[in-house]
Amino acid sequence: MKKIFSVIFISFILMLSACSSQKSGKPIEDFNYTDQDGKSFGLKDLKGKVWVSDFVFTNCTTVCPPMTMNMSELQKKVKEKGLDNVHFVSFSVDPEVDTPEVLKNYGESFGADFSRWHFLTGYSQEEIEDYAPKNFKTVVKKPRDDDQVIHGVSFYLFNKDGELIGEYPGDKEVPFKQIIKDIKAAL
């Protein structure tokens, strides 16, 4: 009976830890890409800042518009709370289509504050398909016969050292209060 109880207890603990939004604090690999203004932007520019990122593309017909609207809402809430030094990074998963100009127009349509929200491109499709799973544990894949890119729908929170410390749903039922709480803790 004790053995069964122990197995159930350990299973319960593992399930709880799997549901947690907190990550291990793993640093991501350095990157240096091109932002919506055509300027170089990379991990070095985020040093000492807390930041939230996601993966989107501008001609997405499904999850990207709600994700970008939710990121815009998070940007607004962060500003309302007076949380300075928080940045937002949206990596394009369709870099050949998403030029800096296209990304700028896309960001403007969602009210992006470009002083704190950076839309990135300037890498190959293969690079982003390799970078995302290695650093974010998420898939990015552009099918050969489709213009819609397969990608994850999470928001990722990074601390001032560039370590991934949280992952949250970004497309629906976004836990804004929890993200703000975790941002405050990271600041």
TrEMBL record:
A Pfam family annotated for this UniProt entry: SCO1-SenC
Domain Thioredoxin: residue ranges: 22-187
Stretch forming the signal peptide: 1-20
Gene3D superfamilies membership: Glutaredoxin
PROSITE patterns: PROKAR_LIPOPROTEIN (PS51257), THIOREDOXIN_2 (PS51352)
CDD domains according to UniProt: SCO
Keywords: Copper, Lipoprotein, Signal
Family the entry assigns: Belongs to the SCO1/2 family.
Protein name (Swiss-Prot/TrEMBL): Lipoprotein
